[in-house]
Every structure is written in structure tokens, then in C-alpha cells.
Amino acid sequence: MKVVAIDYLDYDAGWEREQLRDLPVEFLDYHPAHGEDPHLTERARDAEILVVAAARVSREELEQLERLRLIIRLGVGVDNVDVVAATERGVIVANMPGFCTREVAEHAAMLILACARRVRGCQEAMTKGLWSREATEAPKLLAGKTLGVVGCGRIGSELLRLVRSWEFRRIVYDPYVAERRIRRLGAQRVDFEELLAASDIISVHAPLTDETRGMFGRQAFSRMKQGVIFVNTARGAIVDESALLEALRSGRVACAGLDVFEKEPLPSDSPLFRHPHVILTPHIAWYSEQSESRQRAWVVEDIRRFVAGRRPRHVVNPEVFAPRRARRSQKRG
User: Which listed residue (36, 264, 304, 327) is catalytic?
Assistant: First the structure.
């Protein structure tokens, strides 16, 4: 069985091959720049299993991968995979929910603190030889502020638990989560408009869908409090970066902490690099020594399960296991 891993992070897959040596599996790994691989279909043509991180797997590519039976997404979101097309072709799509929940929640909390405490301004002042409280703007005290969390899945929920002692009022916008779950987290459900108007800090943890793409545009930023802190560790395309820059220039957004961007890697000429009230990290909120180990072990386990005729740990499209006729009926419906 041929397994092809495209953009398999920054490491060689020798450990994976060693773990799978008792199975009839050929594991090939490729490392194109920044995840995009123009040779994906050529490299994976005979593969039954495809492992991808950021590489896009479109309907057109799926149509050329006739032997493909399983896609393992090396992460949580599956917005880079055409799940509908995969399901129509009987291809299982598996992902890794929960492998980096604590890491991303901690990263979001770090960005909130870094924005509130004006860390970028302090560091830049010190590199210029300045040693004075007047060298940067006064930090914000967070106690008593309102934290608005957009998306109350695993990561949004973990952030709410993590900041329980920070003396925030905590509000949540997520129309797909039961209110009792939000109440158990010590938070209050509100609609999107109320969250925008009431929050002193907004942290985004929603998946990228047709509904959330461009969710934070000019209109959304115009309805926020003056001087809000804005943090995004979810997906870059949820935020219109030009609208965010306008909000930063006007002071509507006092500081933004961003780990994800509309285009990745962030282009070197992006004005976000130069803005004094923006803190940037290169889509690494998920990353720790522990999460990397979990991720690699998850890949091995899913391959083992598949070879043994079992389902992967978490299947995005369980309807793929329905008979082909039923899948066609679901498509027409």
C-alpha cells in the first residue's frame, strides 16, 4: 500500500517508516515550499493514502487520484480539502481534532496578554536604548474587561477555562453549541452584534466555512468598541486584513495579535509587519514538542487502522461509509 505525505512539516518520515515496517506500506514524504505542490497528482497518482498539511486537494486533483481511499489531514481544519468531492468518490477524509487544543488556547491567551501589556512597543523601545515608561503607551489592565469568544468548540472552550481566574466577563458567539455547555464554562451566549459591541477583547476560534469567510470585515470592525484587542488563531480568511488595518489606523482596534493570515506565508510587503500595534506569529499556535509527537503518532495509528480494515480515529465525512447509491441520493437531496 502506497502512502504519500505532501508538505509533511519539517521532518523526515523515518520514524513513521520504522513504526510501520511490519506492514506492507510504502511511506513517501515530500516537502514542497510552503505546502503548495504543483506535482501533487503526479507524486500521489498510485497512492491509496494521502497525508496533507496545507496542500490543497481539489476536485480536479481527486479525479486524477483513482486509487486514493483515505486523506489524512495533518491538523484540525479541512478547508484545504474538497470534502464533498472526496465523499462522492468514496474517499475517507480524516483529521485530528484535539491534538493541539491546549497549545492554541495558550497561544491565544499569550497574544491577549502581549497586546494588553504593549510587549511589541516595549521591546522596540529597548532596542533603541530607551528605558522609560514613557517609551511606549500605557498597558491595559485586563481584570474587569469583557472577553468575547467567537467559536466555542474545543479551543474556544479551553481558552474560557484557561482565563477563568482573569476576572473577565466572558461572552460567546456560537450558534451551533448548546447554551448549557456555554453556561458550564461560566460564559454567556450572545449574538454576533452584541459580542462586537460589548467586547474589550475578541478572540476568534471559528472554523473557516462559507459562513465565516470574511466574517470580520469593515462592517464588523465598525461595530466594535473603540480600543478593542483583536486576536485570531483560527483561519486567516475569516478576517479581511485591509479592514483590520483600517480599524488599527483609526484606533478602533488598539492592538491585534495574529497567528493566521489571508495568504500564508504572509507576504514580505504586508503592512502588518510594519504596524506598531500588531503582534505576529507564523501559524505556530498549534506547535509544541508534545503536539508534534501526538500528530505523528496519530498518522501512524490511522494508517494502521486503515490497513486493518478499521475506521480512522476521526472521520470528517462518515457518510462515505454508506453504500454508493445512498451517497448519490444524499448528493441529489
Answer: 264
**42: annotated active-site residue:** no
Name the catalytic one among 73, 107, 170, 235: 235
What does 38-76 look like in DSSP terms, one character per residue? TTHHHHTTT-SEEEESS--B-HHHHHH-TT--EEEESSS
Those residues with Cβ within 8 angstroms of residue 134's Cβ, 6 or more apart along the chain or in another chain:
none
What length is written for the chain? 333
The pLDDT tens digits for 294-321 are: 999 999 999 999 999 999 999 999 999 9
User: How many distinct structural domains can be found in the chain?
Assistant: 2
Asked if residue 182 and residue 132 are part of one domain, the reply reads yes
Distance CA 263, CA 261 (A): 5
Q: What is the pLDDT of residue 324?
A: 59
If asked whether residues 112 and 190 sit together in one domain, one would say: yes
Mean pLDDT of 197-204: 99
Question: Is 264 a known active-site residue?
Answer: yes
State which residues form the domain around 173.
Answer: 101-280
Q: What is the pLDDT of residue 285?
A: 98
Does residue 19 sit in the same domain as residue 152? no
| pLDDT score of 139 more than 80 | yes
Q: Which of 169, 223, 277, 283 is catalytic?
A: 283
Q: Are residues 8 and 157 in the same domain?
A: no
As a whole number, the mean pLDDT across the chain is: 94
Find the CATH number of the domain harbouring 62: 3.40.50.720
Active site annotation includes 283: yes
Average confidence (pLDDT) over 54-66: 95
**What band does 331 get if pLDDT is binned at 50, 70 and 90?**
low
- Residue 278 gets the label, from left (phi > 0), alpha (psi -120 to 50) or beta, of beta
63/150 same-domain check: no
Question: What letter represents residue 12's amino acid?
Answer: D
Query: Same domain, yes or no, for 14 and 29?
Result: yes
Segment 186-194 long-range contacts (CB within 8 Å, at least 24 positions apart): 186/160, 187/149, 187/152, 187/160, 190/148, 192/150, 192/220, 193/223
